[in-house]
Specification:
Layout (H helix, E strand, L loop, with lengths): L1 E4 L2 H18 L4 E4 L5 H14 L8 E4 L1 E3 L10 H13 L6 E2 L8 H14 L5 E4 L21 E4 L2 H7 L12 E4 L2 H5 L4 E5 L5 H9 L17 E6 L8 H4 L3
Parallel strand pairs: 1-10, 2-3, 2-6, 3-5, 6-9, 9-10
Antiparallel strand pairs: 4-8, 7-8
Helix pairs in contact: 1-2, 2-3
Length: about 250
């Protein structure tokens, strides 16, 4: 389940190749996408591959995991903005092909229900990319989130807000809530790739390795997924058993 490669760039090269091959095999693929610093080099490598060896992308559909409540799509720290900058615009994807929760919606319950229905109408997710939070969250499903939930609004923990402070000018600007795809929808994806890089993720990766399946560590539910890859660099693997730490 754990595949260790030497560096963050090696992770990006491998994961982008897997996504590229998935699109090549199924041009009408439904991709579940994540944001964050771990994903930037992955998307850069994927864009480079698709520029060098183009594939038809007109039938591709994407759904992002989450969005901050209260940030407009134009806000530089919104996930809409991140995805547009790093993937959607470079690939020329049409607005109709891409989906993210609306963080500025008037009624979050209705927005969450509609998002779940859109995922279902698309036939579910073929491939879901995931990062992992320092407290084990996937998407913004924080510790204690029920495993049987669909898209929902959630209050971010103090730890998550502290982790995300580096993207904002000060703590008061960090959103307190987000809309996130639910664990049920993530687990229904036909393939899942969880990615982690850097020493900052070593502790939670070690916890994930040793943990049972427990709602207090949301990522642990992935151990029950039928088609999971956990792809990490050597720094993120530093606290795993010795035989797993070196790149394979």
């Amino acid at each position: 389940m754990f595949l260790v490669v030497p560096t963050p760039q090696a992770v990006a090269d491998l994961v982008s190749t897997l996504v590229y091959q998935h699109i090549k095999a199924k041009p009408a693929a439904v991709l579940g996408l994540a944001t964050g610093g771990t994903m930037e080099p992955i998307y850069a490598a994927l864009v480079a591959k698709l520029q060098q060896q183009p594939l038809p992308l007109e039938k591709l559909t994407t759904f992002n995991l989450d969005e901050y409540v209260g940030l407009s799509a134009a806000h530089p720290q919104s996930y809409h903005y991140f995805m547009q900058q790093h993937l959607f615009a470079p690939l020329g994807l049409a607005p109709s092909q891409v989906h993210l929760p609306d963080g500025n919606c008037r009624n979050s319950a209705e927005e969450c229900q509609a998002y779940s229905e859109q995922i279902a109408a698309a036939g579910g997710l073929d491939l879901q990319l995931l990062g992992i939070g320092s407290n084990g969250h996937i998407g913004f499903n924080e510790p204690g989130t029920p495993f049987d939930c669909n898209t929902h609004e959630i209050e971010l923990t103090a730890q998550t807000r502290q982790d995300n402070l580096r993207f904002f000018a000060d703590a008061a600007e960090v959103p307190t809530h987000a809309i996130t795809m639910g664990i049920c929808e993530i687990m229904a994806a036909r393939e899942v790739i969880l990615v982690a890089t850097g020493q900052r993720k070593a502790d939670i990766i070690a916890q994930l390795y040793t943990s049972g399946v427990d709602e207090q560590l949301p990522a642990s539910v992935l151990k029950q997924h039928r088609n999971l890859k956990v792809i990490i660099d050597e720094d993120a693997a530093a606290l795993l058993p010795t035989h797993l730490q070196q790149a394979g």
